[in-house]
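dumping this here so i dont lose it
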């Protein structure tokens, strides 16, 4: 039977930690410590070890923060999970990071908030560029499974600051053809000789690379920032709705 032993030091720092809650600085340090000590086995999202999922707040062998710390510090006897060389404080920072992943997954998601998020998505013009299942436009990326790919915090950032990070597969290009036509659009497909774009009118354009005079990636996202168009609550409900979209 696996047992948990606590040192007095661990209990004392646990109490101090619980009082402070998880500060952004702890979460940030925890993220780095996780990257160095854990991600080679558990993967960046905590789901590489089969049967173990560190990113969603439910564990087979632990429920409290203290139990998680004990697992990290002691390892799990008889399994490949080794004891890590971490101070108690560092171990709590990793817990803070793992809890933050789980919290980002379900930002207080109750039904009313999700419904509110969905109606914002429909009323704020998002569907003019995005698609969810069979509604909306293909000018921007399809968001049907955005929640399976990105966390609430990243989604919020995409909404208020679209230029902060544009994923490589979402980059827009501007091409000029031999006969001088300029076309801007999102790349759907590309091979050595040809390129398929979806242009700003949602039209599929197929081009031979040999016919292009110029080709450049756009630095800025075509998506407008919604920073001043959404209140804090609206932003979090909208992101909560998008996080709930995990596929068909
Ligand atoms: C050498 C590979 C390896 C490293 C490094 C490693 N782990 Fe693990 N860990 C495992 C394996 C394998 C298991 C599954 C053990 C079992 O139950 O069979 C596991 C299990 C766990 C569990 C229990 C999961 C559950 O659902 O109860 C937690 C929590 C955990 N690891 C956290 C961490 C953290 C945090 C770190 C970094 C400090 C870390 N591990 C480093 C291999 C590793
Ligand atoms: C004028 C078109 C346009 C409008 C309107 C628009 N977007 Fe976008 N959006 C884009 C484009 C293009 C991208 C891809 C480039 C980028 O990442 O900024 C994008 C990217 C995103 C991403 C990141 C996608 C990914 O794959 O990670 C999210 C999330 C997003 N938009 C949400 C929204 C929401 C929510 C709204 C409404 C409040 C909205 N967008 C309105 C065009 C638009």
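and the seq i came up w/
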């Amino acid at each position: 039977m696996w047992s948990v032993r606590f040192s007095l030091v661990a209990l004392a720092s646990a109490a101090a930690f619980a009082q402070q809650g998880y500060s952004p600085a702890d979460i940030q340090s925890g993220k780095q410590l996780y990257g160095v000590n854990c991600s080679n086995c558990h993967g960046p999202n905590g789901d590489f070890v089969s049967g173990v999922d560190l990113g969603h707040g439910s564990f087979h062998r632990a429920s409290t923060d203290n139990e998680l710390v004990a697992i990290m510090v002691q390892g799990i006897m008889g399994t490949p999970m080794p004891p890590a060389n971490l101070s108690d404080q560092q171990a709590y920072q990793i817990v803070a990071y793992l809890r933050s992943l789980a919290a980002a997954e379900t930002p207080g998601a109750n039904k009313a908030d999700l419904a509110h998020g969905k109606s914002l998505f429909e009323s704020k013009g998002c569907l003019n560029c995005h698609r969810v299942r069979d509604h909306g436009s293909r000018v921007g990326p399809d968001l049907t499974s955005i929640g399976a790919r990105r966390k609430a915090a990243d989604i919020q950032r995409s909404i208020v600051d679209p230029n902060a990070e544009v994923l490589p597969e979402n980059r827009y290009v501007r091409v000029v053809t031999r006969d001088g036509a300029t076309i801007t659009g999102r790349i759907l497909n590309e091979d050595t000789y040809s390129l398929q774009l979806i242009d700003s009118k949602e039209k599929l354009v197929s081009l031979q690379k040999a016919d292009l005079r110029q080709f450049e990636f756009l630095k800025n996202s075509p998506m407008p920032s919604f920073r001043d168009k959404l209140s804090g609550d609206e932003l979090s409900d909208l992101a909560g709705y998008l996080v709930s979209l995990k596929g068909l």
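The pocket of heme C (ligand 1) is lined by residues 37-38, 40-42, 49, 52, 54, 59-62, 68, 71-72, 76, 79-82, 84, 94 (CB under 6 Å).
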